């Protein structure tokens, strides 16, 4: 293939990639685009002096919203799965934390950038105590909690009164009625 044909092929593949909605289709197009980019680079190396290196261009930004979460006593953990993210340089994975949100940006992963914004968290997080870890095919955001319960329901469950099982059932019923009247 000539250099011009490769360039046209890459442009056409990029247009198709922007229109693709399925994960398999976009992955296949991305792989083809990388293969053709490598061929183009090899052709350019043959034509150009060895000292000149073509700049790496990133494609478009993909907004991802798929994540899982878990919590411990100190952290709310958000797991974002991105294939091969562990192969990207650490400076290309950036997380910006605020009191009620975080913004993840992964640059130049398979020729694309990935963005995820989670805002309007139920409670505030500690910006200074929050961090990120890059694991195999995953970014783990550790949001340092400033609260003990995740939602109001769990908090109300803790406030349930204990009932005395030793007293007379009629007396317990009267106590329940009195407590309901106070609310």
TrEMBL record:
Residues making up the signal peptide according to the UniProt record: none
Gene3D superfamilies noted in UniProt: 2.60.40.790, UVR domain
CS domain: residues covered: 62-164
Biased composition (Basic and acidic residues): 159-171
GO molecular function, one term: ubiquitin protein ligase binding
GO cellular component, one term: nucleus
CDD domains, per the entry: p23_CacyBP
Gene Ontology annotations of biological process type: heart development
Stretch list, region Disordered: 159-183
Database matches in InterPro entries: CacyBP_N, Calcyclin-binding_UBL-bridge, CS_CacyBP, CS_dom, HSP20-like_chaperone, Siah-Interact_N
Coiled coil (UniProt feature): 3-46
Stated name of the protein: CS domain-containing protein
Organism the protein comes from: Cebus imitator (Panamanian white-faced capuchin)
Taxonomic lineage: Eukaryota, Metazoa, Chordata, Craniata, Vertebrata
């Amino acid at each position: 293939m000539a250099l011009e044909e490769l360039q046209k092929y890459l442009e056409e593949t990029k247009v198709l990639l922007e229109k693709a909605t399925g994960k398999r289709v976009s992955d296949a197009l991305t792989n083809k685009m990388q293969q053709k980019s490598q061929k183009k680079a090899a052709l350019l190396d043959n034509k150009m002096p060895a000292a000149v290196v073509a700049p790496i261009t990133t494609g478009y930004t993909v907004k991802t919203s798929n994540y899982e979460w878990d919590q411990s006593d100190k952290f709310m953990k958000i797991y974002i799965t991105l294939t091969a993210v562990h192969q990207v340089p650490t400076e290309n994975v950036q997380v910006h934390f605020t009191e009620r949100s975080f913004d993840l940006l992964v640059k130049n992963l398979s020729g694309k950038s990935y963005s995820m914004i989670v805002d309007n968290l139920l409670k505030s997080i500690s910006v200074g105590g929050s961090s990120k870890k890059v694991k195999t095919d995953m970014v783990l955001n550790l949001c340092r909690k400033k609260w003990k319960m995740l939602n109001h329901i769990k908090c109300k469950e803790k406030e349930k009164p204990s009932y005395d099982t030793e007293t007379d059932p009629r007396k317990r019923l009267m106590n329940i009625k009195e407590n309901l009247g106070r609310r």
